[in-house]
Design goal:
single chain, about 300 residues, alpha/beta, Rossmann fold, 8 helices, 10 strands
Length: about 300
C-alpha cells in the first residue's frame, strides 16, 4: 500500500556495509509493500583504510542484490572507493531518491553508541528523506509521528501519505506542549539582602491558566487536523497530547508503546553547511532506540 497512489514509482537509495544494522535495513525494506515500479540503488563504499574489508563488503553487496532480486525488486548496485557519508550524499544529489535507507551503525562503530558517524552525517546533510534503521528489525507494526505543527511537520505528514507502510501498521500521532510555566517575578534583578528586598509582583495565576487553555486548544486542533489528514493513509490512527520536555516525552512514549519507527520532520540542507537538525530531532535520533524516519523539507 502506498498512500493514495499505489501505482506511484519510488526510487530508494540503500547504503550497505554488511553490518547488523545494515542487514536490519534490508529486512525492513523487504517488509515494505513497495509499488511494482519501485527501483533500488544499493551502494557500498569502502575507504582507503578498509582495503582488508574490500571482499567482505563486495560479498555483502552481492548478497543484498540477490536477496532483493529474489523478492522481485528492481535493483542496481554501486561499489566504490571513498568516504561513505560523502559518497551517499553525492549519489543522492544525482539520483534524487524518494528515500535513503541505511543502518544506524556501521561495521566499525564504537561499542555502546546509538548512532554511527556515517548515519549522523547523512541525516544532517542529505536533502532527502532518510530512514535510519536499528537492529534487530522486528516489524513495522507501531509507527509514531511526532508533530510540532511546523512547516517541516506538515511536509512530513504529506510524505507519510505516500509511504508504503504495511497494512497492519498502527499510526500514533503525538504533540508535546511546553511545560506549564511557574509564576515568576515580572522583573528580576540581583536581589539585595533579604531584609531590604521588597516583594516583587508575580504573574497572575489566571494569566497562566488562560495561556495553558489556549495552548491546549491549539494543540488539540493540531492533532485533530493531522489525524484527519493521515486517516487517508488507511492505517489505524490515534493521537495523544501531552506536556513536558518534547524530546523526553517522545522518547518515553516510544518506550511505553513499543514503537518500531518514529517519524519526524526536519529542514533540508541550507546554504551554510552545519548542524541543521534541531535539538529535539537530534535527541530522538540518538536516544529513541528505534528506527527513525527524518523527512526533509
Amino acid at each position: 500500500m502506498l498512500g493514495n497512489n499505489p501505482t506511484r514509482s519510488m526510487h530508494i537509495l540503500l547504503a550497505d556495509d554488511g553490518s547488523p544494522h545494515s542487514q536490519a535495513a534490508i529486512q525492513l525494506l523487504c517488509d515494505l509493500p513497495l509499488p511494482p515500479e519501485a527501483h533500488i540503488t544499493a551502494v557500498s563504499v569502502f575507504t582507503p583504510l578498509q582495503v582488508s574489508d574490500h571482499e567482505v563488503l563486495r560479498k555483502s553487496l552481492d548478497a543484498t542484490k540477490a536477496c532483493l532480486y529474489d523478492k522481485g525488486m528492481h535493483i542496481d548496485t554501486e561499489f566504490m572507493l571513498g568516504y561513505p557519508a560523502e559518497k551517499i550524499v553525492e549519489i543522492a544529489e544525482d539520483l534524487r531518491p524518494d528515500l535513503i535507507i541505511l543502518g544506524a551503525k556501521g561495521l566499525r562503530a564504537t561499542f555502546g553508541i546509538l548512532l554511527g558517524g556515517v548515519a549522523q552525517q547523512v541525516v544532517e546533510y542529505a536533502r532527502f528523506p532518510v530512514l535510519i534503521v536499528r537492529a534487530p528489525h522486528r516489524s513495522l507494526n507501531q509507527i509514531l509521528f511526532a508533530t510540532d505543527g511546523s512547516q517541516y511537520s506538515q511536509r512530513a505528514s504529506e510524505y507519510l501519505l505516500t509511504f508504503p507502510f504495511p497494512k497492519s501498521a498502527s499510526l500514533h500521532i503525538l504533540h508535546v506542549l511546553p511545560p506549564v510555566p511557574l509564576p515568576i517575578p515580572l522583573s528580576q534583578t540581583w536581589p539585595p539582602a533579604p531584609e531590604f528586598a521588597p516583594p516583587l509582583p508575580m504573574y497572575e495565576t489566571e494569566e497562566i491558566k488562560k495561556m495553558v487553555e489556549t495552548q491546549n486548544e491549539q494543540g488539540i486542533a493540531l492533532v485533530e487536523q493531522t489525524t484527519n489528514l493521515l486517516i487517508k493513509s488507511g492505517l489505524a490512527t490515534s493521537f495523544k497530547l501531552c506536556r513536558g520536555d518534547a524530546a523526553t516525552e517522545i522518547i518515553e512514549y516510544i518506550k511505553n508503546k513499543g514503537i518500531d519507527l518514529v517519524v519526524i520532520g526536519s529542514r533540508g540542507l541550507g546554504s551554510v553547511r552545519g548542524w541543521l537538525l534541531g535539538s529535539v530531532s537530534r535527541k530522538i535520533i540518538h536516544y529513541s532506540g528505534c528506527s527513525v524516519l527524518v523527512v526533509k523539507e
